[in-house]
Amino acid sequence: MGSITTGIARNTKDMYIAVAIEMFNATSFTALRSISSKLCTSDELGKMTSFFNLVEVATSMTFGPIYSMIYRYTIVIDPGIVYYVSTILTVPPLAFFVWFHMQHKKALRESRKSGVEDNFTGTELDIKKKEDHLVLNIDLDHERVIVE
C-alpha cells in the first residue's frame, strides 16, 4: 500500500503520507521474526536468525541493482513504476500467506469436528523441549556417552 502511494505521490505532502503508510510495513519484518522464533526450538534459533539475515543480504544484493535498472529505463515514462513493481512482487508472498492461513483454519475446523484437540502447542512442544533438554545434557567422555 505504501509503495503504491509513493508511486503516485507528486508533491511533498503526498510523500509524507506515503512514508506514514509505509511505516506499518516495517512492522511486518519484526512480526515475522517474532513468530518464527516461537516456531523453532532454542537450538534452532541461531540457524533461523542466520537464515533470515542471509536472505535479507541476498535480497538487497539482488533487487537493489534490479530496481535501479527498472528505474533507469522507466524514469521517462513514470518514475513511480519501480514502486508498482515492488507492489506486484509483494502479491505472491501475500497469496502464500493467505493460503496457509486458510489451510490452517480448515485443519482447525476439521479437528474440532472430529473431536481431536489441537495439541501441538501442548504435548508435542513439551516433548520437543524434553528432547532439547536431553540433547543439551549429553556429554562425551573418552568416546563414551554420559547422560546426566
Features:
mainly alpha, single chain, 78% helix, 148 residues, 2 strands
Would you summarize the structure shown here?
The chain is mainly alpha-helical.
Explain how this protein is built.
By secondary structure, the protein is mainly alpha-helical. Helices cover 78% and strands 5% of the residues. It is built from 5 helices and 2 strands; from the N terminus they run H-H-H-H-H-E-E. It is a multi-pass membrane protein. InterPro entries: MFS_trans_sf (IPR036259). Its main location: membrane.
Helix and strand arrangement:
Layout: H1 2-8, H2 12-39, H3 45-74, H4 81-113, H5 120-136, E1 138-141, E2 144-147
Antiparallel strand pairs: 1-2
Helix pairs in contact: 1-2, 1-4
Unreliably modeled segments: none
| Strand arrangement across the biggest beta sheet | 1-2
β-strand percent reads 5-15%
Oligomer: single chain
Give average pLDDT, whole number: 78
* Radius of gyration (Å): 23 Å
* Helix residue percentage: over 70%
Helix run count: 5
Give the N-to-C terminal Cα separation.
54 Å
Query: What structural category characterises the helix and strand content?
Result: mainly alpha
